[in-house]
Each structure stands twice: as structure tokens, then as C-alpha cells.
Amino acid sequence: MSPRKLILMGLSAFALVIIALITGLSASHQPRDAWPTTLELPSTRGLLHADTLSRGEAGHLSVLIPGFTHCPDICPLSLARLQMAWQRLDETSRAHLHPMFLTLDPARDTLPVLSRYLSAFSLPVTGLRLPSQDDTRLEEFTQRLGIQFQRREPEQSHPPEHAQAQASAGEADYMIDHSVAIFVIDEQGRLRDTLPLSQTPAQLADRLRFLLQSVAAAPSSDSVATVNTSANANVPVTGGA
């Protein structure tokens, strides 16, 4: 193939990438409904809906981390990263931010378990839990946010005669593979942004300040370019987080 054709192919590929980026950014500028107004979630603070913590006042944001208490590393790291960002904010910003942790493992994570787990962090975080028999609402809520998760069973390593014992152990040993990010929701239940955990605490704090200023300036305007929903397709899913 001639150098001229290679250059033309390269320019065409570059143009397609630019078009895809522009399309994604244009689609990401509108907040979208994530928390249905009729949905109440059991939590460590009682039943919550979108504006419970803000008491219906404008200019508030909830920052939600999905995970589970048996997570060996990613979930504690996510909460610790948010904690470090929280410590960089002033009192006014903190008063308008509401950290939340949504368990993706309601079978093991009861509300008392969530309370004990979250008390280890210097962060006023509320634990959210939908009953394990109510998978439909959990799946609907996570899909609205762009959260992906699935249960991963332990590897089959025992001989057949130990199958029953393995099954019992598996009930406690399974893992949850899930999306890793901080999901920012306003008091009207709209997703405003998806923040990757690859950002530093300083970057997270700066972004949260910007989002707070945005909703304070125009809390009811859908034209505010704050949400980055196009990032949902690229949110990493942990491997046994």
C-alpha cells in the first residue's frame, strides 16, 4: 500500500474518532433521570428518596459509590478516596453533599452490617440496601445509573465428595464484579456526573465544587452541562472487587 493511501486512511480514522468524541460529549451535556421519584430505598437512615437528605432544598448533591462489604480492596479504596476529597471541602460544600454507599450484595449486607462497615470511615456516609428478594428494583436503579454488576462464584476446586461443603462455603465466598466510579445525583434524582476513581482527591474535590456551584446557580435547568453520562459505557468493572 502506498504512503499516500496510508496517510489518507490515518486521517479518516482520526476524523471518525473526533466525530465520535463530539457526539459523545454532546449527548453527555444533559442530566438524566436516575432516581425515580416514587422509589424509596431502605437505608441506615431510614427510607430515602431522591430529596430526603436535602429536605427538598435546591443546590444539594448525593455522591453514590456502589459496592459490597466483603470487597477486599476496591470498595474500601473508593470510600477512602472520597473521604480524602471530602476533607478538602469547606463546611458549606459538605453541608450540601451527601455520601452514599449502595450495596450490590443485599443477601449478606444487612443494614446493621452496612452501619458497622461504614463507621470505619471518617465520612458521613449513608448505606443503601434493597432487600435481596427485590432484585428487579435493584437492577432497575443500577441500570438507570449505568452501574454494571454480577455475582462471581468461587472456582470449582474441590473433589465431588466435598461438593456440599463447597456449596455452603460458596455462599460466603462469592464475589461481586461491579462498576467502579462515584455517581453524582441531584435532589431531583437526576444523574449529574460520573467521576472515575482514577482522579486524585484534589481533582474529585474540584469537580464536586464545580457541580455544587452549577446546581446552586441553576438547580432546575436541564441545560446545565454537568453530567458525563457517556462515561458510563467506559466505567471499569472490577475483577472481584
Structure description:
This protein starts with a helix and ends in a 24-residue tail after the last helix. It contains 7 helices and 8 strands. With 241 residues, it is an alpha/beta fold. The protein is globular, with a radius of gyration of 21 Å. Helix 2 crosses helix 7. The chain has a 6-stranded mixed β-sheet. Strands 5-6 form a two-stranded antiparallel sheet. Residues 150-169 are annotated as: Disordered.
Are there runs of 5+ residues with pLDDT below 50, and where? 3-29, 157-170, 221-234
Mind telling me the C-alpha Rg? 21 Å
Give the overall average pLDDT: 78
The biggest sheet, with number of strands, parallel, antiparallel or mixed sense and barrel status, is: 6 strands, mixed
Structural class by secondary-structure content? alpha/beta
Q: State the helix count.
A: 7
- Strand arrangement in the largest pleated sheet: 1-8-7-2-3-4
* Outline: globular
Tell me what portion of residues adopts beta-strand conformation.
15-25%
Helical residues, percent:
25-40%
The secondary-structure element order is: HEEHHEHEHEHEEEH
Q: How many E strands?
A: 8
- Spatial separation of the terminal alpha carbons: 46 Å
